[in-house]
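> call design_seq(struct)
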């Protein structure tokens, strides 16, 4: 394609970009048709993309070609049509990677800006092929850039334009793969370490609804990706489970801290607003963990692949210890500070127990006690750290609908729902323990247990 450069130079920026996209489509169709594996785009083609679509100057003395806002909008519409009309997924994916795979050069900034605008438009007008290509891009790209793309969508649909959230909400039905990657990226972005890094309430509501409607949504990337070990550290996690667990556990203390920091201007999203949402999210995450034994067994990875990494749990407990220390220092300012602290510790205990029982977290009891050593005493956490954790086929999944009163603790009794598919218990348990029918998560504890009153 290098020989078309001279024909593109006299054209205006929009016409040149449109013409290059046309030739790029033909070139990549022929490349895929040739059967060459892997199909590699030559360097001259990449240079044309940088010069005539990303407008990176070929040399320092060359004039910078820029598009007006209207021309850029027209280019985005042309690109949407290009991907929509191309029927072959392999061709679409290769065109997308040619345009947006990061090359480690100055044009990468232009790539990211154009990518954010294109994906945002694809969400708005329902261009599924672009969302599918973007889902693949998420899997192959450094997490720093994945987070940047997620931030663009949050800004566009949850911050800048009030009432535009329902448009973003539809991505879970348009492209579940993209939705799963988006959830993973935003849970990486918002770590609740500050007010700015706390998820907007509208985003939180969307994620809760997505997972309630389909708990397997957060496992789609994992289910559709051949895996034999851990993902590269630079990439996003293969599921958003670690980030969602972090949200649920840190939320009671993080929201109370943020509320105190901004109380003077009265602009805080209060814990009373977000609390029930995080409770519902916590129950849904536990439900996802309980789906994993059969799924991991089917893929031959049961006991061999940790979807919840021990180092991320260690980082979470370290953050939680700091938040609890800050809460203790200011206990007199919040009457329910102790209750919020215990809620966070309860959620940690519940997540650890179910994750270990489902073999999503692979670690020894000694490792777990070591990373939790800085945490204050909590009855439920002490039971988890002391006794064996087993998975049982008679554990009922908690209801997806939530109540501010019952959602905080899945230990409480719930209306019986259909059981999960039968799974052979890892360890047989004495029938005498069935007397504790109101403590389903504690069944199988090997030492006397007396509920506190």
């Amino acid at each position: 394609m290098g020989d078309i450069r001279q024909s593109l130079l006299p054209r205006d920026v929009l016409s040149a970009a449109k013409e290059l996209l046309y030739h790029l489509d033909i070139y990549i169709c022929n490349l895929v048709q040739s059967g060459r594996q892997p199909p590699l785009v030559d360097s001259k083609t990449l240079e044309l993309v940088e010069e005539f679509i990303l407008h990176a100057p070929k040399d320092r003395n060359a004039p910078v070609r820029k598009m007006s806002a209207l021309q850029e909008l027209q280019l985005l519409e042309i690109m949407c049509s290009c991907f929509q009309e191309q029927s072959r997924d392999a061709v679409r994916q290769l065109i997308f990677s040619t345009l947006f795979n990061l090359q480690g050069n100055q044009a990468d900034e232009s790539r990211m800006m154009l990518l954010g605008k294109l994906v945002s438009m694809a969400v708005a007008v329902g261009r599924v092929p672009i969302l599918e290509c973007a889902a693949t891009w998420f899997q192959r790209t450094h997490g720093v850039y994945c987070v940047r793309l997620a931030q663009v969508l949050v800004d566009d649909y949850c911050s800048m334009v009030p009432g535009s959230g329902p448009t973003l909400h539809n991505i879970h039905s348009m492209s579940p793969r993209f939705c799963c990657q988006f959830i993973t990226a935003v849970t990486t972005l918002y770590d609740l370490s500050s007010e700015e890094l706390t998820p907007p309430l509208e985003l939180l509501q969307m994620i809760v609804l997505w997972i309630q409607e389909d708990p397997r949504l957060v496992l789609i990337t994992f289910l559709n990706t051949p895996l034999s070990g851990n993902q590269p550290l630079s990439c996003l996690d293969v599921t958003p489970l670690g980030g969602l667990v972090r949200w649920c556990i840190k939320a009671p203390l993080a929201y109370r801290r943020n509320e105190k920091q901004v109380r003077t201007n009265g602009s805080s999203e209060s814990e009373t607003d977000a609390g029930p949402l995080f409770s519902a999210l916590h129950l849904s995450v536990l439900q996802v963990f309980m789906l994993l034994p059969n799924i991991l067994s089917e893929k031959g990875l049961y006991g061999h692949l940790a979807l919840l990494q021990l180092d991320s749990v260690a980082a979470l407990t370290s953050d939680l210890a700091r938040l609890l220390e800050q809460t203790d220092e200011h206990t007199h300012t919040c009457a329910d500070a102790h209750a919020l602290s215990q809620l966070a510790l309860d959620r940690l205990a519940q997540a650890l127990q179910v994750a270990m029982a489902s073999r999503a977290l692979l670690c020894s009891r000694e490792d777990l006690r070591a990373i939790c050593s800085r945490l204050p005493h909590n009855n439920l956490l002490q039971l988890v750290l002391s006794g064996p954790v087993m998975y049982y086929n008679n554990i009922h999944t908690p209801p997806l609908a939530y109540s501010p009163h019952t959602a905080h603790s899945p230990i409480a009794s719930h209306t019986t729902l259909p059981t999960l598919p039968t799974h052979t218990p890892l360890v047989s348990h004495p029938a005498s323990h069935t007397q504790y029918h109101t403590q389903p998560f504690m069944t199988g504890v090997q030492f006397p247990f007396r509920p506190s009153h």
